[in-house]
Amino acid sequence: MSRIGKRKLTIPTGVTVELNDNLVTVKGSKGELSINIVDGLKVEVNDNVLSIDIEKETKNTKAMYGTTNALISNMIIGVSNGYSKNLEIVGVGYRFNVRGNNLVVNAGYSHQIEKAIPNGLTVELVNNNGSEITIKGIDKQAVGKFAAEVRKIRKPEPYKGKGIRYKDEFIRRKVGKKASK
After folding, report:
1. pTM recorded for the entire structure
2. Of 85, 98, 101, which Cα lies nearest the Cα of 149?
3. What does the pLDDT read at residue 127?
């Protein structure tokens, strides 16, 4: 049995969990998220404690037992607190800019790269020079995916450290060529 699947989730005040057949809907102050539960799993809510049990033990239900618990936990945290990722861009002339519903990135290419900001996410410039942004939303997967897509525009390189990186990311630097004697 999965240790994460056995975990009991406490539902904070201000968050409601609704169960309809195989659909679990979590509502909170920031919004609403829902997920379909795999057949063979049973979700129960008793006195603000959510638990998941296996009804039919199959290979699929064993695999999804802990995953479902983690997904519902992420939904509860998302609708109550939300998620955010901080990105910074390093390089001469490298900048972020938000134009309407698009994120515009100058990352050393001959052209600007525009990424459409997905629904449910917000992108804010942290400082005026455009070197840092914060991506916020209630869906952990959507926030992480969009941050990864933005980072992929220009990954940080190990020699000068130029590129787009997460704020808390450490880039291991390499030594460049040495002059011959």
Report:
1. 0.90
2. 85
3. 86
What letter represents residue 111's amino acid?
H
Length of the chain: 181
| 3-state SS, residue 102 | strand
96 plus 158 within the same structural domain: yes
CA atoms within 13 A on the CB side of 143: 20
What is the domain-level CATH number for residue 133?
Answer: 3.90.930.12
Among 15, 49, 80, residue at a domain's last position: 80
pLDDT, tens digit (0-9, with 9 covering 90-100), for 140-181: 999 999 999 999 999 999 999 899 999 999 989 998 888 777
The domain of 125 spans 83-166
Contacts of 38 by beta carbon, 8 Å cutoff, 6+ apart: 22, 60, 61, 64, 68
Helix pair 140-153, 59-80: axis angle to 10 deg: 90
